[in-house]
Structures are given as C-alpha cells and as structure tokens.
Amino acid sequence: MLPPTILSAALVVLWSAVGLCALSPCKNPQVRREWRAFSTDEKAEWIRAVKCLSTLPHNPALAPSVDPSDSVIPPVNASSSYYDDIVYMHMDLSTRVHFTGYFLPWHRWYVHVFERSLEHKCGYRGVSPYWNWTIDAPDFYESSFWDGSDPVSGLGGWGDPNSDWRVPDGAFSTMRVSYPSPHTVRRDYTYQPFDESNPLFPQPLLIGNASFSASVIKAILGTSAGDYKGFQTMLEAPEGPHGGVHVTVDGDLGGTCPENAPSNCVGGPKWSPNDPLFWMHHAMVDKIWYNWQQLDPRNANSFFGGASEPTDNLTIYDEYPNGGPPFLTVNSTMPADGMFPVLTIGDVLNTTGGVLCYVYE
C-alpha cells in the first residue's frame, strides 16, 4: 500500500486531472448563463467541444455497476466514443438516479463532470449553458429556439419524420451516437407525451409544454422551506417539468427506440444524453434547485431521499416519491461507473463549496 503522503498526492493529481480538486476555495465562481445569452462564437465553441468528445475513443475504465436485468440496456460497445461512455453511465445508472434521493445531486455532479471533460479533453474555456424552457413553453413547437440551423453555432430543429426523426440541420445533424444502437441524433415533438396506460400519469391528456410553464416553476419554488422531499417530488413528478421536457422533445431526449434498434430495445430516459440538449436541460433543472436553495437558509443544505426507485406501482410511489429505503445521507457516495472520482452527496450541495465553483445568472 502506498504511504499516506504519496497516496494523497496521487489523489490530488487524479482529482485535478478531471477538474474536481477541492483543495482551493471557490473565489471566482463561473456564472452559468442561458443559451440565448451566449454570443454566436460562444455557442459555436460549446458545440465544437461537445462534438469533440464524440470523436474521442472509448474509455476502458467504464465499468457498469447495475445488474443488466435491472438496467435492461445493451452491453458496452468498445468501438463507441468517449461521449457515448458518458451517455452509457446514465443508461446504466438510470434506475438508481431517478426518483431517488440521488436525482438532484447526481445530475448536478453529472453536468459538472461533463463540463470538466469539455475543458480537459477538448480545450473548452466557457461555462455550461442552461436552457430556460419556460420561455418557450407557451408555443413550444414554433419557438424560435428551434431555428438553430447554422452548421457551426446552431442546435438544430425538429427531426425529419421521413428520416427516422433525425435532426436535419444545425451543428448536430451529423452527430452519430452508439446507444441503444448507432444512429444520428433524433427529435420528435410530442404534443401529449404522457402514456395513459401508465398509472404514474394521472393526467394523460396533459399537453407536454404545460408541464414546464413559468407558473409551474413558480409553484415548485414555493415549496415549504426545508422540505427537500416536497421540492424534488414536484420537480421530478412523472408529469412534472423535468420529465415533461424529456418526453415532449422525445427522440433521443425522451429515450425512444430508433428504427434500427434491436427488437428487444426498451425505451425510457436512459440514453437521453445522446441529445446535447440534455446538458442544457439538466443545467436548468439544477438552476431551479439552486434558486430554491438560495430562497431560505433552511433550503441550502436540506436533503432527504431513499436509494431504491419507487416506480413499481402507484402506492409505493405515493409513499416514497423520491426513493424508498435504505435512506441516503449527505455522506452517501454517488455512483460513477469508474469514469470519475467518487463523491458524496454533501460534496455537491453547495455550488460554491466542495468541488463546485459556479453560480447562475
């Protein structure tokens, strides 16, 4: 075993290598901004770095940790890209990091390590953009947000129904992803995305963009001070804003199986990071949590949740909407599938403390 001094030095090198070193206090936090506040050059630079990750080779350190009978995903494709590896983490850990206490802290960490990967592997020097979809909610399909046809700085628009819903324009129109089978990024606007056969959707006729309106977010931010469980339950509700954005954009963001997927493909949010919109969407989810934390001192370090996903039936979900036993604490470690150093929930509760150093405009 390495002597403590050498071991500590090795850990510092490892954490620094992925931008996670917590030895220096956060003095000049980055300011994350809404996508539309980015200049054309800033948009192009973020997109360049994202596409760069999709050209880098597979990381053999990726080690799925969930039993395949639970994750129900294809095996790791060794010919895939580093970007695909990060997507695979989300696929593998989907049942652990949704509707559990891991949801908010894990996804906060996930966006952070993606940002650091952009920096350390592709030379990105900007900040993570967030997508304020409440701006677009009143007329989602026709919003100017989808006018990004520029091949360098545009996010692209809605998918082509005559070509497996692949994004036909913008910088991601040629971006290939590996899971659940190789294909080009897809989007399929879905007006009423909530499945009436699923008992977790009490309002199956709800219009998708009604689930992420400004009034919905105002109500969520009004959750009682210190009530982390109540706050997460509203934000991650099956017909709430988090899931509503995923399934309204659908395609890869919603996790629908592409035409060339294996016959045993099971849809769901597993491979939603395939669409780079995922990172902006989850930065917005994180911003809502950040805003709630700032509203009252009792919210800042509030945390509660279980480790088991409660979606087997409506009775269990109603009792444990953000995870059933065993219950997590701020000292619980978050799964990383061998890709990044393991952190605790408490490490990411404060965006200007621990390993994080950012705020939102």
Spans of at least 5 consecutive residues with low confidence? 1-23
Rg result: 19 Å
Q: What level of helicity do the residues show?
A: 25-40%
Return the average pLDDT rounded to an integer.
92
SSE ordering:
HEHHHHEEHHHHHHEHEE
In terms of DSSP E residues, the strand content is: under 5%
Biggest sheet, spatial arrangement of strands:
1-6
Structural classification: mainly alpha
Number of helices: 12
What's the β-strand tally?
6
From the spread of the alpha carbons, the general shape counts as globular
Report the span from N to C terminus: 46 Å
**Largest β-sheet summary:** 2 strands, parallel
Signal peptide: 1-22
Keywords: Copper, Metal-binding, Signal
Domain Tyrosinase copper-binding: 98-115, 275-286
GO molecular function, one term: metal ion binding
Compact summary:
Helix content is 35%, strand content 5%.
Note the main attributes of this structure.
Tyrosinase/Hemocyanin, 6 strands, 361 residues, oxidoreductase activity, globular, 12 helices, two-stranded parallel ribbon, mainly alpha, Tyrosinase_Cu-bd
